[in-house]
């Protein structure tokens, strides 16, 4: 049984598409990152993911992390893999060369990250934190702080942990109560209990930089009174060497249904009144810092949905081409491969079509971020940022919700064997289950979408997106082979456009509908975005087929699009119908009677 | 935290509804089973489920079963609970009084079973097997066999195990290869390996009667050559006392992602050539026997979806009335109960509305079976049996698929806490995950629906069902308060009716569509059936409200129906749209390139 094969061909195609769509081809800054280099990086990453990370995934799940007297031991093989990961330079792939990274654009980092996530999410959880934490330090840290922290972080000598959640402050960070008391020397004394800290304590690196959200004594209430502090596990001397232990104590790790190899820590800061921290950025600007990380993290969680879908598809396909059971639906021939049963094919294609649509969206977002950072045209930058901001909550929530569905479908294809842990696919379901919750639940993404991403700019970004999808629909309609899909795409856009006035209506009478209907609306837009991406792929496939290129591959791409339009696109209308009447029933029901 | 409260009020209402709809009120045979008796039985069962079974559910999951040298030990407390369960007479509730049971009609047994499933499915897995196994013996066994086996089975002294699956014969039972060699004394020597045998070995009872599917030497190939044998773990002397051990050896138990407390055994029969079995019924009629059990088992698995939904709803509701987080969407008031967030309300109501619709369907099916067994009118019996046969695969597949979704939604409501095992709701997800697989996968139910339940009678049963739902829609349309729902129900029926000619078309060109579209079609019909049940409940609620009865309860019932029509009914049209184009993409995609 193959554990995971990096889908290099799909990835390269989608990277090329993303580069073209984002207009990155002509940029001199990216001239060195040509197709050849992309292929080389992806191939190397694929080898590492397949050869080093994937083999530890199941053993890490079975063994889990160990907690003893404040110390966390990661599963067997984790330490060695971590060292190799850092030595090979994967940690700093997309981080600035100034601090030892490789400064690769996001459009290359995205497929590489996908491989890590597919191969072993529990292991690689430290990676997104390091990326996000570095971004925070880059944007908010002083020059001195950057110089002190970023080198060891980019090299993997130190890791980053994000300390946000408290028992009474989860989704609502504004209610956190950890304190930061300023000291005469410019440091702060941190005091408080945090929970759900991923890799908050571990044995992989010599130090851990906790980025802790806390309140200074005179801070305003709520989310405007939160500041961000760097709190090292081991204090750092002026020359950058390690000093004494800081007063940072891991009090336990969670017993989770999945991600057993990733320690989820409860941390007590300053229990002995000796927890030193230093302010990052200005006081009371902690939430802004957090959003820098959060956007990274949302894209990474969304990508987890893609990554789990891909692994599940590979395993299920392999199994259904081996397992014989039942007879052919047409010929009655006995004991055929189960992939020949149309219902099994339906399940396989439901995963594969979603993976391709969502992956295409993920790579596009990455390329749009690259472009927004490189363009010199301010108006273009603004509209690119608005596009990314709009797509981020859709992608995060839709990809993770469908990631859960895809892992369920994978188990279903395995039948009874899927329920047996040794098969390995139940682990996918368990590991993926947190994706729709962390980095902002699906409900929170949907509210972000409706209120901050659609209402707050008066519908400008969504209208621009819809116009682009309509142009895509028009292009499809001009091609006889794709006109059915073109028509369906156009009709889906019209249906969303008809709902826009209602979404933009700030009448308070509308508030219940917008809140209760936000997730169904997000589902509709997520499906529309996948359909859009697959429509573009179909157009590409059609033209390559006409040129006689790789007919097996491109016929399948075309079939995937047909499948998605038949099996998923009708949901757009159903979800919008729900959105239109989303206050029904929610308003009248009383839970406390 | 309450683990489970039997929802007595809902259950009693739905039992009354089912009795009325099935026309059981006037039957003299059922005169003694009045509302008072139903209430008394449900109350007692509720106490047992809450007090004895639910408290063992999580500890059984954590501990699991132990296997050592052929012996299986169940988790702590299992043995005592089993004894109490049998002593209280719950095992034989719906089994014939002739053999020590209580002969209660199915319409009472159904809610009682639901309670066992909600409280502790892993424990109670033996129960459905005992019910189904007893039905087989009642229908197929000789008088002597009934006399010998049924007493100890009904009392719980012996349990029943069903030995169907082999490594190469899962969904496709026709390919099983276990042998049964006739002996001169009329017995058979059984030889073969079976897997996935629930409670195939355990320490709860002194004997286990394995009902084993096997082939006699001259049996025809495929499913027409399968016979059924009773194979006791301990041989039974002529006087009914226990003799020597039979050659039945448990070779291991599975390490599953859920249902840890229920031993799933691999069994070797006749490894030492000493496994005696006796034929039940005629040779080569084993599959017919299996279908007796299978129909029981399908209803039981479907009920598991309802049962998990109910527990999940109760836990999630309790949590969302305790947990404060975020601010009120209208007033901005800080730190409100999360049940006040419309998106959390949406999730809670999505579970509650499905549970009520599916439970109503479950109880209706039970009452229809009772009626079909009691009616003296042959035509009525036939049409009742056809209705039950049609509804069974819909209910099994739809309730279990949505059971999985509901456990996922429960976790989502708990947020990060849902991912922590101690919270207990991740166990619901893990335990429920097998429901869509065992007793016939969702794909198999969908094929059964399309080919055996719709095509084979030329659409008679489905047309009768649709006509009844249309009558319900008409009734709703005549009530101003419900006319919107009435119209939606009617339009859904019309959409299904329009698809009927295509479903009934036996053209081979149609086969791919019917096979690939069977599950989406079943989804549409499942949603329609829930909508139908909820529409009836809304009508009842409306009339009770007009009479001034229990306004809190009935207003909520009405709200549930509104919710379901807004959030779920639009799926009917989407799934039918998929059905209409279900060959798209499945046909063209090639998995082996």
From TrEMBL, chains A, B:
Describe the location of the Acyl-CoA dehydrogenase/oxidase N-terminal domain by residue ranges: 40-157
Fetch the Gene3D superfamilies from UniProt.
Answer: Acyl-CoA dehydrogenase/oxidase, N-terminal domain (1.10.540.10), Butyryl-CoA Dehydrogenase, subunit A, domain 2 (2.40.110.10), Butyryl-CoA Dehydrogenase, subunit A, domain 3 (1.20.140.10)
Family assignment from sequence similarity: Belongs to the acyl-CoA dehydrogenase family.
The protein in question is named: Acyl-CoA dehydrogenase
Q: Which domain of life is it from?
A: Bacteria
* Cofactor(s) the protein needs: FAD
What's one Pfam family here?
Acyl-CoA_dh_1
Task: Report keywords, A-Z.
Answer: FAD, Flavoprotein, Oxidoreductase
